[in-house]
């Protein structure tokens, strides 16, 4: 056992000696030299050219960070090897965990100006609808400039087109997107921030070729049935008599593609009602005349998907004729005879006995003629009066005197003969 241990130790010692000799023979690796530091001076401002003070700059892979001064300037030194790229990000102090802008340090110069708008800046520009001049160049996938490409500020009417070199300049704002159109190319919609950030660098817009087999769901000018939707409804009523021959109400929606030449293709049932009515609706749409095809923003005709509803409902019963109600006939009102207007005790026909009184002749007689007028006495007969022999005395008050038998005189009614008043005679009425 002792022999074996000594043997093992000797072998280990021999191996260690060999390792030490090999280590001494190999060259010792040198520490790589640090890359030279480069001086940076970066100014950050908003689109209104106001300094963004207090912003934070962080270089990727570094723990140090830098803060902009009152003029929005970062002034620092950092290692920036030419053989590798280094990126840096900017943060607003109110949101230090969200990057506002990222750029390559190699692309910056000693006096670089970066334009970065914060949320408050954008809100202010939106409210005031501030306009900013922007410029760019439109190219195809191969980098060739596209002439006569249309650049418009959507919803404002401001538009321009690129020159022979593909360049353009236009006034834009934060409230409306920027739309670029070119023949045979897909439209592009951009935000103004793309053009305002780092404005000294020319902004290139690369257009993608348009797929001729692409089907659009929304275009500038949608497809239309010849004559409009009213004409389409007339076509349905004429060619689908079953539309009003159902017992319950329902809708069938047919979806199809309007080709560039206006023909109908790929009709499908997007929403069914009843199997037989679905089939009738599908055949109706398949046999429609050609539509007016849809057009893209650049005026080119494109394939477009469209849907039409076909309604089924029971026929409404005819409403009964309304008979005008008869107007009530006004009945004549019978006048009520005033019993107080005549004295029944004096005469049964008072209106015939009373004659109109002649006009006052004293008003027209002269004083001499007035003296010759004979006064009327009780014995003179006055036209229209009853002769004295035909008068009978009025009976006493039956409320105070009892009724006497014929032949006996009634005592005088002392209540009716006061002073010189006399009871007027009453005319005898023949039975």
UniProtKB/TrEMBL annotation:
GO terms for biological process: transmembrane transport. Residues 1-24 form the signal peptide. Residues 326-337 have a biased composition (Low complexity). Residues 317-431 are annotated as: Disordered. Pfam families: CarbopepD_reg_2, TonB_C. Keywords: Carboxypeptidase, Hydrolase, Protease, Signal. Coiled coil: none annotated. Residues 339-350, 363-382 have a biased composition (Polar residues). Residues 246-313 form the TonB C-terminal domain. One of its GO terms (molecular function) is carboxypeptidase activity. InterPro entries: CarboxyPept-like_regulatory (IPR008969), TonB-dependent_transducer (IPR051045), TonB_C (IPR037682). It comes from the Bacteria. GO terms for cellular component: plasma membrane protein complex. This is Carboxypeptidase regulatory-like domain-containing protein.
